Amino acid sequence: MKKITALLLLAAFVSTTAFTACTKKEVREVNNATSLVFPVAADDWTLDEDGLVYSVSFDVPELSDAVYDHGAVLVYLAFGNNDFYEALPEVFNGNSYGVIHNAGYITVDASPVGDNAVTRPGAATAKVVFIDAQLLEMHPDVDLRDYNAVTRAFRVKE
Length: 158
What we know:
The chain is α+β, with helices and mostly antiparallel strands. It has one domain (34-153): Immunoglobulin-like, CATH 2.60.40. Helix content is 25%, strand content 35%. It contains four helices and nine strands. Strands 2-3-8-7-6 form a five-stranded antiparallel β-sheet, with no helix packed on it. The relative contact order is 0.22.
């Protein structure tokens, strides 16, 4: 009788241990970052009615409420034929460049630095990168101001 009780206890212990040691691994597929490219001609920049700020706007239907509320929107500019992209906000040639965005659109503006008058920006290329919040969390050490680092870390498809 003692042997049967001991065997039943051993069997109960082994089965309990074996089944509780198994855990279900949850695998989530996270989308890659998305990149959009917008060529900007010099005459695309419009001066506001006060004559203080130049701006250019882009219709971006890909910028949904979900991306706006739960992700990162990064904007980079390169002027002329240059392929070096600077993250905004930034100062170039006496203008301070910033970004305003909401679901469906992005506006880049250029305002004067200090007491200087704003100068019309030249031709440029804007690159916009959307990064899902989960994907961003997986790469906390990436320098988001470095376009090349962002494209490598988040496998940005252009």
